[in-house]
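Work Package 3 (structural annotation) set out to generate three-dimensional models for the target panel prioritized at the project kickoff. During this period the team completed the workflow that converts sequence records into discrete structure tokens, so that structures can be stored uniformly alongside our sequence database. As a representative example, we reproduce one entry of 198 residues exactly as it appears in the project archive.
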Amino acid sequence: MADHYFSAEPGSADVRRTVEARIWGKPYTFTTATGVFSRDRLDIGTAVLLREVEPPTGSGTFLDLGCGYGPIACALAVETDATVWAVDVNTRALELTGANAKAAGVADRVRAVLPDGVPDELRFDAIWSNPAIHIGKPELHKMLLRWLARLAPGGDAWFVVGKNLGGDSLQRWMTDQGYPCERVGSAKGFRVLHATTP
């Protein structure tokens, strides 16, 4: 069976390459590999999210949910003094996130871990995610509820979801679950959603 980017242990050969990207006005060179999400370029959805939402400032504790090789986590750490927890089920993606954080000079504030590696007591001031829609709606909803419940009071969650992959219905679903959600941007077939704690 072929690897998916949400495979825990990719079986494909670990073939690496670099990807150039510009995020919030700063240039980055990321190392990517086979078996991880969007290994050939900065994913369009991720690019839309980072273009439509202003960079955060200050400090705090952030979550990059489904971090892939770490472009969101690295950019968040570069822009702020926050500690960024970069969570993924793909161990190769986590290794790459660690390497990319080191290359960006923020390895001391980026924690690349499996979901169960996040301390239970930790609460997040913000969640940023290009979520793995292709895991299916039941698993997606389960994942989102797990992490939305860990938003600190007054916390923000930023998501990018393809319109044709259910971006509008996901917006309604999050509101129905008690996390008021609005669309704050739309480009290239993607919706940028902002959810808050009740």
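The mean pLDDT is 88.
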